[in-house]
Structure formats: C-alpha cells, structure tokens
C-alpha cells in the first residue's frame, strides 16, 4: 500500500520537539504580537494558536474517542466543510485568553503523542490524505500522522512570520515536512499521461532538502529512488523555504514558478511546480 508513496516517514518523535518550540514562542509573545495578522485570511496570531489547539482536540476526539464531530451540510465539499468548521472553532476560542490557549496545547499535546505512539504506522489511516492518495489506494497511518505534523509545523512558521521570530526551521524539524509534502508529487502529476518509465525529478535546495522522483507506469505515477538527472523528462529545482510555502499555498503557483528552475517537458514541469499538500 505504501510503495507508490515511497518509504514510510515516522514523524511521531518530532511532535514533542515541534510543540516545545511552539510553546516557547507563544509564551514569549507580547499582547500586540498576539493581535498580529497572519497569512491566513482574517486570522491573527491568537486565532492561529486557537486553530492549533482545536486540531489537537479534534484528533483526540475522533482518533482516540471515536467521536464523529461536525457533519457535512448538504452543499459542503471537503474544502468548504473544513473552512466552515475551522472558522466556527476559532471563533469560539476567541473567548479564551492566550494563557488558556497555551495551557490547552501543553495539556493535550502529550495525549496526542501517546495516541500516535500506540498506532501501527503501516495500518490504515484514520483520515485519508486526499492530496497524496486515491480511492483505490487508501492512505497509510504514517502519512496521516506526518500530514498532521506538517500542519502544526507550518502553522508555527506562519506565527513566526507574523511576529518576525524565525526558528524551528532546522533540518531535524523541517526535513520531514519537505519529505511529506513531496509525497504529493504522484497525485500532482495524475492528469499527465506519459509512456511508462517517464520520470519527473524534483530537487529541493537547502539543508532540509533532497531529491524526489516520480515515474509513470501502469498504475499511474509513483515515487522511486532518484536516478540520474539525465533520465528525467522534466526537472524542477526549488529552495526549501519556497517549497513549503508553495505546498501550503503561502505563495502562489505563479510566484513559485518565478523562484523555480525548470527544464524538460514543459507540461510535466509546470504540473510538478504546482505541488499542493493541503486541502484546497
């Protein structure tokens, strides 16, 4: 089940480290910084911290306790459902002080760590990762857990951007984010039919970067260990900071295109450079 997405990533040991950096950051913020606008439309730092706290609560409620939670409304798609429920939960937590939000994250984070530590990473995911999987290929648990790790890390970076406090972006914490996001490459290329063996190479520059390749075959695109650059029909090179911002839509595809170096098959390179690793 995992083969098309490459080898499993175990992000579970990184949850406490990422959260410790987040809590140190939040405890250092001044009242004006808590009110600073973020890249998330309509949300300030307080709202983004509330969203992180809600994510902990929802994963524990659903994955540990089996609670169904909010339901789809008749006209909902997955993006509209998530946007609506996220906004509802953030609005409710605007009543909470920064100190209470910090306490929520600090209290419930270790409970989520304990939940994931007992999970078989190669078993089925509680929530499919729509930007990497397919109906014919359900997501493995390790990808679901890694997806959540990337969300927490990205939201921390968005807070850091808002208050001009860089950090938590060393290779140990960032490399798994980049690696997880590149698991979206086969799904990103799904609309491009090519002869079997056609390869696309994606190189991410920086200490947290590396090289990923997708190859087309009878079952569609799948990741493979990188071969020589000359074997690729298309190649994209992008720095690590731009990659995570592109994948989370902190920058547009057009801006990423200006930052990237692309070569080879134009349609394949264009598709790869539109990589998306969130529900959009």
Automatic annotation (TrEMBL):
Recorded superkingdom: Bacteria
UniProt xrefs under Pfam families: MDMPI_N (PF11716)
InterPro entries named among the record's database cross-references: DinB/YfiT-like (IPR034660), Maleyloyr_isom (IPR017517), MDMPI_metal-binding (IPR024344)
Mycothiol-dependent maleylpyruvate isomerase metal-binding domain boundaries: 17-159
Parts of the chain that traverse the membrane: none
Example of a GO MF term: metal ion binding
NCBIfam families: maleylpyruvate isomerase family mycothiol-dependent enzyme
Protein name: Uncharacterized protein (TIGR03083 family)
């Amino acid at each position: 089940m995992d083969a098309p997405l490459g080898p499993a990533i175990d992000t579970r040991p990184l949850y406490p480290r990422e959260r410790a950096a987040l809590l140190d950051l939040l405890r250092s913020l001044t009242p004006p910084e808590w009110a600073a606008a973020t890249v998330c439309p309509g949300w300030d730092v307080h709202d983004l911290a509330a969203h992180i706290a809600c994510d902990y609560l929802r994963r524990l409620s659903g994955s540990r306790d089996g609670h169904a939670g909010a339901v789809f409304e008749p006209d909902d798609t997955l993006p509209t459902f998530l946007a609506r429920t996220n906004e509802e939960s953030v609005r409710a937590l605007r009543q909470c002080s920064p100190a209470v939000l910090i306490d929520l994250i600090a209290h419930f984070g270790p409970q989520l760590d304990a939940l994931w530590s007992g999970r078989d990473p190669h078993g089925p995911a509680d929530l499919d990762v729509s930007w990497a999987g397919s109906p014919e290929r359900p997501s493995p648990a390790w990808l679901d857990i890694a997806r959540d790790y990337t969300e927490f890390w990205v939201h921390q970076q968005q807070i850091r951007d808002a208050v001009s406090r860089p950090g938590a972006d060393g290779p140990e914490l960032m490399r798994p984010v980049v690696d997880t996001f590149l698991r979206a490459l086969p799904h990103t290329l799904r609309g491009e039919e090519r002869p079997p063996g056609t390869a696309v190479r994606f190189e991410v520059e920086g200490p947290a970067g590396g090289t990923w390749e997708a190859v087309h075959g009878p079952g569609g695109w799948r990741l493979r260990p990188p071969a020589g650059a000359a074997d690729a029909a298309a190649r994209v090179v992008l720095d690590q900071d731009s990659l995570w911002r592109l994948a989370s839509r902190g920058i547009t595809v057009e801006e990423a295109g200006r930052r990237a170096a692309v070569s080879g098959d134009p349609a394949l390179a264009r598709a790869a450079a539109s990589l998306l690793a969130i529900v959009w």
